[in-house]
Known about the structure:
With 179 residues, the protein is of the alpha/beta class. The protein has a single domain, classed as 2-Layer Sandwich (Nucleotidyltransferase, domain 5). Helix content is 46%, strand content 16%. It is globular, with a radius of gyration of 15 Å.
Amino acid sequence: MISCLLSVDPGKKYSGVAFFRDGVLVAADRPWPGRNSQLPDVELLLGTVAAVIEWGDQLEPAGYDVAAEWMEMRGRRSPTTYTLPPLWGVGASVAAIAKSRGFEGQLLPVSTWKGPLPKKKHHPMILAALTPAEVAVVVEATGQTLEALIAVQSADASDVVDAVGIGLVALGRDPRKKA
């Protein structure tokens, strides 16, 4: 089993992140790169990658594996070609940094960790797959009630829940599969 895992739902400005130790969710957040959002895209991306890595390093300075979402182009409802490269850049960079440190870095396609399910169906599955202590981590990280998280009332909280879902799948705890 993976000892420590940082899972990432990549974003251009900031990303949802979750940290698992021995298969248990112990922290989640949306680290802010502390940069002006008016900066060129490349500066925002570098700041976002740095913020994610710094957050993980604070939790486990000895290192950790990484699982990040890999967006796929599928049909007309896919993200535009303008939005995909920054997301690819953040996820791939964080995974590459883990590999360069001697740990695993994997990119999970959306079809692998989530499939075609909308957030309103998938988020309740993710939250139901967590222990009460893990749910408390997500509630604290997002500042949302469990009911608000299930109803997907906040895009900010959604990033964190997605990061948790990515981590669950990477750890073999796929919330779409019934025990």
